[in-house]
Design a protein that fits this description.
It comes from Friedmanniomyces endolithicus. With about 775 residues, the chain is mostly helical. Among the domains are: about 90 residues, no CATH class; about 150 residues, Serine Threonine Protein Phosphatase 5, Tetratricopeptide repeat, CATH 1.25.40.10; about 230 residues. It is about 65% helix and about 0% strand.
């Protein structure tokens, strides 16, 4: 133990002697006497401004190797002094203060953290973990503010966070804080997400000049995301990626940086390079098929069209990756609002896709909340808003309301096993859609009673819903009573009805016939609401009420088709209910045929399964390293980043890739070899679908520019170009052959064409 330490000390002493001798050597070359040498050395000890000059003199005379080692030695000594100055222990540390500071971090009480931080810095209690946790707290606080909507208070709070982040950056620059790459990475992420790109870029430019204690692959990845968000050209970002050593030997690098790969993926996605972005995702899935960070998938779900987003979501769930609940809700909402309410096939397909997404999410280990339940209940109740339903007679509507309520009851029973119950918004939707559009007064009464039984409080939206439903039912007395109850409740709260309330009253009054009552109510509000808005509402009171289509205009076959699809939805709910009986954290998906896609693509059906497997084996030859790669293990606190599970800001993933072999199967029970192959096929599908989407939208943009008008939103263009598949494969169809199993009976020419297409999309052949 002593010999290496002595040898190390001897080496440092020799290096110091060589460094001192350079001043003598430089003086001799310049003709200075020994007295001048002594003066220079003495002056150097008290004036650090001569350091650069002395180093330059040394560089002019010493060899290149000596130059590098001496500069590195100087830098190391200065950084060591800074760390000792920052981290020197204090004997009289106030444990109560430390506990208070840690509690503020745990509570994400950012204001308290900012208040206590100067004292924590003065007391020198900011050890390595506590400093990183401080920055993590600020980052989580910023994200929570972003979820609370846009207002003046939020803007002020965000500015306070940015100012504090800048203070931390300055402290790092001055050496007042010990370097911590995880903290640096999160600071860059804070600047990116808050929109303070200039401050983040300035901090990054300083970090880039420091050594490996300040920057690493993880910090590079975060910086690439910041630069991509600020508009840096993709070519420049790719050059930044090339700074990392051994880019082509990723599997040999100590600590494969998924954060760096994520940065490249983000840059490509934001620059419209969807093909390259999917290839980056393919790389991540090849490296860690069951451990790819959730952020990789969330980016595609946020940025790409619905058909791609759904498949990426299914891809993550099949791999056992639990995505953030916000990401799952985002997909469910997009599925709901994307349905064409003029087509019952489109609407029911969207409902089945939502159930499939929930099934896969829970199977991967995700948990659901009341918000998820609300989203699906709202979507199911909107069945009564279909154009087809408007022409149904009373008996047909009654049957449809009954079938819809049956589906809702089954769904609530299933979700109750997961510990999730509906919120008041679900019952508000039942009141309007089933009670109002479905013309069922009894449903309104039952919904209010059930909400009360669950301990839910009726809110202002509930009263608006009752008012709307009463108008649709033509119940004049109920409209008047509901309005009076609403006004009375608002008065008790010190409020008054707003313009939206009066517009709803006018609409309900026109339908129910209490026009005079509504006109008096509107005229009484002229004193506290804009007169022109109220006058507009009063004018609409006397407009002609549009009558619904006659029932004779309804196609009986369409009604039968709708009822049949509702029964298919009920079967999907049965499958979801069976999954709820299994109380394991994750589900064994190895033998299940999951509904991975919501649209088909003819180009992907040309290769039979055996041909796809053969091509996969050709393109993905495994390379076994001569010796196991050792990967650094992140501190335990980096692995327990529960506060922000969706952010890939650490390479904690590499801790799983230790010399110990990875499990043979994913958490969803799929062998890793099989999972890699299935992921490869899914990426092929996504590459082709993305190319189709991009070409369609680019053509629409070119046509709009030529016509001198603004291009339509991408989602609308794609929705109009390719309608949702009517024959969707849902949960109850998983035992049937899937559309993606095509390829049988193909000719040799078609097989060769399919192989070439896969090679072209993956960059193995010249692109057309």
């Amino acid at each position: 133990m002593l010999f290496p330490a002595l040898r190390r000390a001897h080496g440092e002493l020799q290096g110091h002697r060589r460094w001192l001798s350079t001043f003598v050597l430089s003086g001799w070359i310049s003709g200075q006497d020994s007295h001048q040498h002594a003066t220079n050395i003495t002056h150097h000890r008290c004036d650090h401004s001569v350091w650069p000059r002395n180093v330059r003199q040394f560089s002019a005379t010493a060899g290149a190797a000596s130059k590098g080692s001496t500069l590195l030695w100087l830098k190391r000594k200065q950084q060591q002094k800074n760390r000792l100055r920052v981290a020197a222990p204090i004997e009289d540390v106030d444990l109560d203060f430390v506990n208070d500071f840690q509690q503020a971090i745990s509570d994400v009480d950012v204001k308290q953290v900012i208040k206590l931080f100067p004292e924590a810095q003065r007391r020198r209690v900011l050890h390595h973990s506590l400093l990183w946790r401080t920055v993590q707290c600020v980052h989580e606080g910023l994200r929570r503010q972003a979820r609370n909507g846009e207002d003046e208070a939020r803007r002020e709070a965000t500015e306070e966070l940015i100012a504090f982040a800048e203070r931390l950056c300055n402290a790092f620059r001055k050496g007042e804080l010990e370097p911590d790459r995880r903290a640096h990475m999160r600071l860059i992420a804070i600047f990116k997400e808050s929109g303070a790109h200039a401050q983040g870029i300035a901090f990054w430019e300083w970090l880039e000049q420091q050594d490996e204690q300040y920057v690493g692959l993880d910090v590079y990845g975060s910086a690439i995301e910041l630069l991509a968000a600020s508009g840096t050209p993709l070519a420049d970002l790719e050059l930044l990626y090339a700074v990392v050593p051994d880019r082509d030997q990723a599997t040999e690098i100590k600590g494969i940086s998924m954060t760096l790969l994520q940065g490249i993926l983000t840059a490509r996605l934001l620059r419209g390079e969807s093909r390259k972005a999917y290839l980056a995702l393919d790389t991540a899935l090849r490296l860690y098929p069951a451990l790819t960070p959730p952020r990789f998938f969330a980016l595609f779900i946020k940025e790409r069209p619905l058909a791609e987003a759904y498949t990426v979501f299914a891809l993550a769930c099949r791999s056992g990756v639990v995505l953030p609940l916000d990401t799952a809700r985002q997909l469910l909402t997009t599925l709901r609002i994307s349905a064409d309410m003029r087509s019952h096939e489109s609407h029911v397909a969207a409902l089945r896709q939502m159930l499939s997404a929930v099934y896969m999410y829970v199977g991967a280990g995700g948990s659901i909340t009341s918000n998820v339940v609300n989203e699906i209940v709202i979507a199911i109740t909107q069945t009564l808003r279909l154009e087809l339903v408007a022409g149904l007679d009373a008996e047909q509507k009654k049957q449809l309301v009954s079938a819809t309520l049956d589906a809702i009851r089954k769904m609530l029973e299933t979700f109750a096993r997961y510990g999730a119950s509906p919120g008041i918004s679900a019952f508000n939707s039942i009141i309007v859609n089933l009670g109002g559009y479905g013309r069922s007064q009894q449903t309104i009464t039952v919904a209010l009673r059930d909400a009360q039984a669950l301990g839910l409080q009726v809110n202002h939206v509930t009263r608006r819903s009752i008012l709307t439903a009463a108008g649709m039912l033509g119940n004049e007395d109920h409209v008047v009573q509901t309005w009076q109850d609403m006004v009375s409740t608002l008065r008790q709260q010190g409020k008054r009805p707003d313009v939206t309330d009066y517009n709803l009253l006018v609409k309900a009054a026109r339908s129910s016939g209490c026009v005079d009552f509504a006109q008096e109510a509107c005229q009484a509000a002229i004193g506290h609401l804009p007169e022109h808005m109220l006058q507009s509402a009063i004018d609409r009171l006397h407009d002609r009420v549009e009558k619904e289509c006659a029932s004779s205009a309804v196609d009986v076959a369409q009604v039968s088709s709708l009822m049949s699809m509702m029964e298919q939805l009920r079967k999907d709910l049965d499958v979801l209910g069976e999954r709820a009986l299994d109380h394991s954290a994750t589900q064994d998906l190895a033998e299940q045929r999951l509904p991975m896609i919501i649209t088909s693509l003819a180009a992907q059906q040309t290769l039979p399964e055996q041909e796809q497997r053969a091509l996969y084996d050709e393109l993905t030859t495994e390379q076994v390293p001569d010796k196991p790669t050792t990967l650094p293990v992140e501190p335990a606190d980096a692995l327990s980043d529960a506060a922000t599970p969706d952010v890939a800001t650490t390479d904690a993933l590499t801790a799983h890739a230790s010399p110990i072999k990875s499990p043979a199967v994913s958490t969803t029970g799929i062998p890793l070899g099989t999972l890699r192959y299935e992921n490869w096929k899914t990426i092929n599908y996504l590459l082709a679908l993305a190319e189709q989407h991009d070409n369609t939208y680019n053509l629409a943009v070119d046509q709009a520019i030529s016509a001198g008008r603004a291009p339509a939103p991408r989602d609308k263009v794609l929705r109009d170009a390719s309608k949702r598949e009517e024959a969707y494969y849902g949960l109850s169809d998983m035992d049937r052959p899937m559309v993606e199993d095509g390829g049988t009976g193909t000719t040799a020419e078609q097989i060769e064409e399919g192989r070439s297409e896969v090679g072209r999309m993956r960059g193995r052949l010249p692109r057309a």
